[in-house]
Design goal:
561 residues, alpha/beta, TIM Barrel, 14 strands, 17% strand, globular, binds zinc ion
Length: 561
Amino acid sequence: MDVDHVRIFDTTLRDGEQAPGCTMTLDEKLEVARQLSRMKVDIIEAGFPAASPGDWAAVNTIAREVGAPDGPTIAALARANKDDIDKAWSAIQPAANRRIHTFMSTSDIHLEHQFRKSRGEALELIGEMVTYACSLCDDVEFSPMDATRSDPDFLFQALKIAVECGATTLNIPDTVGYSTPQEYGELIAAIRANVPGADGVIISTHCHDDLGVAVANSLAGVYGGARQIECTINGIGERAGNASLEEVVMALHTREAFYGLKTQIETRELARSSRTVSSFIGVPVPPNKAIVGANAFAHESGIHQDGVLKNRMTYEIMSAETVGLDGNALILGKHSGRHAFRNHVEALGYTLDDEDFQHVFLRFKDLCDRKKKVDDRDIEALIAGETQHAPHIYTLEHVQYSSGTNMTPSATVRLIGPDGDARTDSAHGTGPVDAIYKAINRLINRPNELIEFSINAITEGLDAVAEVTVRIREQGISSNGGSDPTTINLTGKRAAQQIFSGYSVNTDTIVAAAEAYMGALNKMLAVRQERMKAEAVAYAAGYAEDPGALPVDLFDGGSAG
Ligand SMILES: [Zn+2]
């Protein structure tokens, strides 16, 4: 691989998914991994297998389904201990190209207050665990966590040991987003100058956005000699997030003459990746977000419009098409046939199985009856709504509501339950949505807290399609019915803290609100079922006290039967 190639290491499914409220089901993680592969990222960090049986299963599935010989390298994260490394290695087994990513802090703050280890003990552990990981895998990445707040000389020592023990990538985390572009660029250059063997390995950036400079720091890092950037779609991640993949990629792409560096990313897939992640985690992309925001290529002021109409280059440094945002809105209407519609869906880059396609086509037709002009954004919203993969444990069969001035809002809903029986209930509320949610809750009877409700119009105009996103938090988990609320899986998520999002689109905003709520509830029930299944396996195997101690080969729920 040439020296001017910058590897894109996507950690949306690990660091990204660790962000509060960004929980994804296994199916959704797989869909994101497939999209990342379509976009030609170099490495997918699929997760942190030691965190929970569910995390192990997700990494293992992605390794099997997306880890093809010509596909991305599949990486798994592990703390610097044997058990974590074993779980990471077993999870990525099915992939053709595999990487173990292990880390240990090197800042005195972390060593003293979190790990209660001396510098000497930390160096010893780094040597031991990098050696162990390299005995299993020929592609090992080492990260000195909190590197930017570490004593540089001690940091160089730790990296020297990692290289001597076989690490092939040195990732330099600005774990708390503390660094400045100048400092970070100089640190990368200093590492190359002071760490023996650094010229024989890849140096990587990993920047957080606490001060809003994660992308700038990452670019300063490659300017300083790094040849891998760790980043996430839409910049999601712990706290204020990670460096955003679409921004670092388009900065290198648009300013290639300046950086003299290239990535292998298929930039036309950027917009789709952003929408896919945004709809799965239920976090809309801000309209002013660089590259993928709704306004990124919109010109409002007269002066700009005048310039763009004369020559786009007057006010655009890249074209919408380059990132997969086709400017032209192709009109499909109620007279469009199934064939034309399927062609168009495929032209948009989607492959739907027959069942999903049938649903989307029917909703499209229904939409054409309600809306004058249906454009690509509407169609993609319908597809996103359909491919939410929220399992249909309960199906919303019917909803009706009435509200208005001088009357009590009320609603009736009919659900089809997991055993196929129809259940109907009615309720009053402060508004139609509240009444509907009350009726649904009475039928499903799983306590939850609505923590976010947002409505967004997909397109302009009175007949615009409404996109509703809701996020709920599970409540009152009983210790025998599911894991004890104090149980923390290793990614720090308390079961009770998990947040589930639901998403739907409809010209009828209230119906979209009902469908989105059902999506979130079904996801909550599905993850709860996954958790209980995993715990039942742990219980059956005598690990009731500490499911995390379950031997790796029993993790694959299937084989444990
Ligand atoms: Zn991070």
